[in-house]
Design a protein that fits this description.
By secondary structure, this protein is an alpha+beta fold. About 35% of the residues lie in helices and about 20% in strands. It has helices at about 20-30, 70-80, 85-105, 140-150, 215-225, 250-255, 270, 280-295, 315-320, 320-330, 395-415, 430-440, 445-460, 465-485, 500-520, 540-545; strands spanning about 1-5, 10-15, 35-40, 55-60, 120, 130, 155-160, 160-170, 170-180, 185-195, 230, 235-240, 260, 305-310, 340-350, 355, 360-365, 370-375, 380, 545-550, 555-565. The N and C termini lie far apart (about 55 Å). It binds flavin-adenine dinucleotide (FAD). Flavin-adenine dinucleotide binds near residues 55, 162, 248, 393 and 394.
């Protein structure tokens, strides 16, 4: 790697934005294939949100119950409410086993069965015991192991570097510009290939399980470059967020046998999903909870219902779910072995994102035309593996598997191609953003605008949506965007200027939230996680298609001509019942 001009101009084969499971798995592949790769991450790599994943990683190993790739494929398609692209899902279930064994060989300490095989637990929407796990710290062990492997294979790390702009010209990616959080100052990374692996963006909501870093910066950068986002209206609300905090209590708790109860002590899932009960998919359970709450059966008159872990038994709680127990104890002072824990739906996973094909190449239209040298993987991407609703444990798997795919695609690309010339004045776009915050004359605070956005997103684009609420939301976002132009930051320094970072992040959230609201308003049906009270039925005739959305000077432009890939002879759309 060539580093010029006082370490601020870097030339390298490949740049990976994000050090979660997707980014690290890609970087490892590129490095193993003999190319140079730099990983840029705004948080220290092992603090990426992948490390917070508790429950498990899916693969049809059939170590505990009978299972098959076909069944994994069917469950995923059904879970997606038939919006998932079946070619992607087919490839995914085939690669999933390989991904788990690779992790095992890297040294991941999976929990074991009595006879020494990788143990597997139940998870919502999966019809076999399919979630490979390590107690309830699965993401933590996967992330740490991958990070160690990356260090071993000489991946370059730029920790606490936040990407502020993408360098794209003539639909060819030429690198990125990033802000050095620790020391201040912009760095140019001139590369042949760029991977966007910047994770989820649940922070646009008030109640969320997502980390503070999950602000969807890349999505805003894509829109800024006149490229589209896909299926942004589909946001998954996880049924068991710790009351008021939104912090996730893993689905593993229900996988191990916890009950959900209302103020009358009833296991209310009997009414909504009599077969799968607490192990129905997340969208179904979140709606059931919200209905219980809205109809006055919330516990203690609150916006909450109960997660009762007592049926699991005290010893098994501490063996299998130590973190879940600890979270409830630390935040609410409730001992889950002795009492039920209040919970509520929490914004958790974003199915939409940066459109990419099965090779992870970012595409710019419904015909699938790639943007040369630009790739996306992990939660920030939309492949579309999860369709309208993701099944638990499929996303660690998706991030790792398509991280590897991205790495392979990128190494082939960097070997076959020369570096493009740098754009003229690469720093301009990023510098303009910084100048606007530093020298603005207005008196708006980014934190106030963020809070108002989050409140409104949860109220109007949450578990239940309708036309009136979404229109109100659009108006609010427009007003907030206007006010955002008057944001000034008080910290004018270089080192750890969190004021600057947060202002940039709020700006990103305002931009992609606008696209989310537009998609949710346009899609007049209910499918997967997107539920319209004014259009409560799925409508395959009109809406069995993907949404592409661009931001233009005149609002959001939507295009519904991207078809869903369906194998009609194998998995024709059926009504989704549990
Ligand atoms: C609490 C919780 C529990 C979960 N449990 C499970 C589970 O049990 N099983 C499962 O399958 N899934 C689970 N998920 C979902 C799953 O963890 C995520 O979808 C997945 O880990 C995302 O990986 P990623 O690599 O795409 O992104 P992340 O791990 O979120 O990493 C994103 C990276 O991008 C970087 N970044 C972002 N913006 C920028 C920028 N502008 N510049 C530089 N760097 C940037 C960040 O620093 C970070 O390194 C869970 C999610 C949560 C929130």
């Amino acid at each position: 790697m060539k580093i010029e001009e006082a370490r601020k101009f870097h030339k390298i084969d490949a740049v990976v934005v994000g050090a979660g499971l997707a980014g690290l798995r890609a970087a490892l592949e590129i490095a193993k294939n003999g190319s140079e790769v730099a990983v840029l991450s705004k948080v220290y790599p092992t603090r990426s949100h992948s490390g917070a994943a508790q429950g498990g990683i899916a693969a049809s190993l059939a170590n505990v119950t009978e299972d098959s790739e076909e069944l994994h494929m069917f469950d995923t398609i059904k879970g997606s409410d038939y919006l998932g692209d079946q070619d992607v899902i087919e490839f995914f279930v085939e690669e999933a086993k390989k991904t788990v064994y690779e992790f095992e060989h890297m040294g991941v300490p999976f929990s074991r069965t009595e006879d020494g095989r990788i143990n597997q637990r139940a998870f919502g929407g999966h019809s076999a015991l399919r979630a490979c796990f390590s107690a309830d710290i699965t993401g933590h062990v996967l992330l740490h192991t991958l990070y160690e492997q990356c260090l071993k294979h000489n991946v370059y790390f730029f920790n606490e570097f936040q990407v502020f702009s993408l360098l794209i010209e003539d639909d060819i990616s030429r690198g990125v510009v990033a802000w050095d959080i620790r020391n201040g100052g912009l760095h140019i990374f001139h590369s042949k290939a760029v991977l966007l692996a910047s994770g989820g963006y649940g922070r646009a909501f008030k109640i969320t399980s997502n980390a503070f870093a999950n602000t969807g910066d890349s999505l805003a950068l894509i829109l800024e470059n006149n490229l589209p986002l896909e299926d942004m209206e589909f946001v998954q609300f996880h049924p068991t967020g710790l009351y008021k905090h939104g912090i996730l209590l893993s689905e593993a708790a229900r996988g191990e046998g916890a009950h959900l109860t209302n103020s009358k002590g009833e296991r209310f899932m009997e009414k909504y999903a009599p077969e799968k009960m607490e192990l129905a998919p997340r969208d179904v359970i979140s709606r059931a909870e919200q209905t219980e709450i809205n109809e006055g059966r919330g516990v203690d008159g609150k916006d909450a219902v109960h997660l009762d872990m007592r049926p699991i038994g005290a010893k098994r709680i501490m063996d299998r779910l130590p973190q879940v127990w600890e979270l409830a104890y630390n935040y609410l002072e409730i001992d889950g072995r002795k009492a039920p824990v209040p919970i509520q739906p929490t914004a958790h996973y974003s199915m939409g994102g940066i459109p990419a094909n099965i090779k992870t190449e970012v595409i710019k239209d419904a015909a699938g035309t790639p943007v040369v040298g630009l790739y996306a993987a992990g939660e920030t991407s939309c492949l579309s593996l999860h369709g309208a609703n993701r099944l638990g444990t499929n996303s660690l798997q998706g991030a790792a598997t398509f991280g590897r795919v991205a790495g392979a695609s990128m190494s082939a690309f960097v070997k076959a191609n020369r570096r493009e010339k740098m754009v003229e004045q690469p720093l301009n776009a990023a510098q303009a953003k910084i100048d606007a915050f530093m020298s603005g004359a207005g008196n708006e605070k980014h934190s106030t605008i963020r809070e108002e956005l989050q409140e409104n997103m949860t109220n109007h684009a949450g578990v239940f949506r309708n036309k009136k609420g979404l229109q109100e939301l659009q108006k609010t976002i427009e007003e907030l965007q206007e006010r955002f132009k008057k944001v000034t930051i008080s910290d004018k320094g270089d080192a750890f200027n969190l004021d600057l970072i947060e202002a940039f992040e709020v700006g990103s959230m305002l931009v992609f939230s606008e696209v989310m609201a537009a998609g949710a308003l346009a899609r007049e049906e209910s499918r997967g996680a997107h539920y319209r009270t004014d259009f409560p039925k799925r409508d395959d005739k009109k809406w069995l298609k993907h949404t592409l959305a661009w931001r233009t000077g005149k609002g959001v432009k939507l295009d519904f001509s991207k078809e869903v890939v369906i194998y009609m002879d194998r998995f024709p759309p059926l009504e989704r019942k549990y």
